[in-house]
Amino acid sequence: MNLEMKTNMKRLLVTVSGILLLGSGIGLATAAEIGSDCMASFCEALSERLGFITIGQLTAVLELCMLMFAFVMDRETVGIGSLLSMLLIQFPVDFVYQSVPRTENNVICILYVLAGIVLISAGAELIVHAELGMGSYEAFIYSFVYRKGWKFSNVKYACDSIFLLLTVLLHGHVGVGTILTYLLIPKCMESASILIRKIRFE
Fold this sequence. Notes:
Layout: H1 3-31, H2 38-50, H3 55-73, H4 80-88, H5 90-99, H6 106-130, H7 136-148, H8 152-169, H9 176-196
């Protein structure tokens, strides 16, 4: 196995690891049942309003639109990792969501969400660092970061704010988990990025 193949295999492994962590984080935070992240909350609210499309189907449609936009804006953000993320993300989400014990203890619920935020941030940044293509939401955000030179956290807060506003307008569920993910994920992703950059593929 030559050096280039070994490097690509490492990038693929990091991408898949990132997808597993990201999906597990989403499943764990959702299992707390005190509010999902802004995009998930919007999809849930819109799905309930429309009635003919599930949350998963709506999420897939939204992610596809984001990837198409990112591809036009900056093709470097889209690749095989983006497709793998769309195909595989549902499995760790569903597994963790169904496996985590439910509780009415608010402290434990908040700990679920905080742990989920850490996993989501680390997973998303692993996918970004592997450079095989980002997840749809990250590709959408980074297309502005790379093309316009805007700060990642500012773009993330702006996008999340739009989803949060739409959720409120649709009378969707906004809880403590929604607020925590809104406030903490952008900063956690920036912190995770600093650590993950130390991973070398060559």
